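During the no-cost extension, the postdoctoral fellow (Dr. R.K.) reprocessed legacy sequence entries with the updated structure-token encoder. One reprocessed record is reproduced below for audit purposes.
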Amino acid sequence: MPHGVLEYSSDVFRYVTRYKQAVLSNQDVGKLSRKIVEWGRSWTAQVTKSPPDFKDKIGDLSQEAMTFQLRIIETRLDKLLKIVDREEQRATRSSTAAKGRPVERSNEALIAALEATFEGPGTMRGKGPRHDNDAIDIADIRIAPTHGELVTQTKPYLPANLPTAPHHLPSNSMDRLLDIEFRLLREELTYVL
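Re-encoded structure tokens follow.
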């Protein structure tokens, strides 16, 4: 494939893999990706003809090296096409599922379940703190888990990261955001222990 088109396909591949919404937010990305795949396959067909229709640097390689390079290019083009197809199918499914379902009601059942099972942190819990490192204020929580925390059978207090989910701090406050982020990040760091 001409050097520019190969580089362009690599750039588009990196773009659609790093920015998951790229295909959804811009229809031209999908069209461009399909065109790149078409050009790449056309180039491969032309360069592998015997004799080739044109002279390209890949023709100077040994047959094994050329086959290897063409396999890499074909794999990259297949991956690009699969990503675009997957994202377009996902968009179609989500738009079909979203019809007839109000957005504001999508989390109602989850919020109701969270409220029914909500037990606050530390002394706010009806049965008392879960362990010696269970506190209401995150400033009182040690980052490294304590022995009592490691041996307890009680699940830790992990708040839901949803705006209307139950929480012991006021909605739309910075304290609430910090509390949620601290507890979730700490759990992610220490859950393997």
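The chain has seven helices and no strands. The chain has two domains: 3-98, 107-190. The remaining legacy entries will be reprocessed before the final report is submitted.
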